[in-house]
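Figure 3 (text version): structure tokens given as input.
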């Protein structure tokens, strides 16, 4: 599917979806073919991460 179709499907702004998909393509989580259509070569993706907030000194 193309970026506009994906944006409609997920109910998000086309510009933001384009930015997100660009990063996902760079990470290898989704692929873009010669016609710029996006696809996911995986049936399931599991991401495990730790996010630690930065504590600012007062």
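Below: residues designed for each position.
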């Amino acid at each position: 599917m193309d970026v506009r179709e994906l944006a409609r499907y997920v109910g998000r702004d086309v510009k933001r979806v384009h930015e997100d998909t660009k990063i996902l393509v760079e990470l290898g989580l989704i692929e873009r073919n010669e016609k710029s259509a996006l696809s996911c070569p995986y049936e399931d993706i599991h991401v495990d991460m730790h996010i630690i907030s930065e504590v600012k000194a007062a």
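The radius of gyration is 15 Å.
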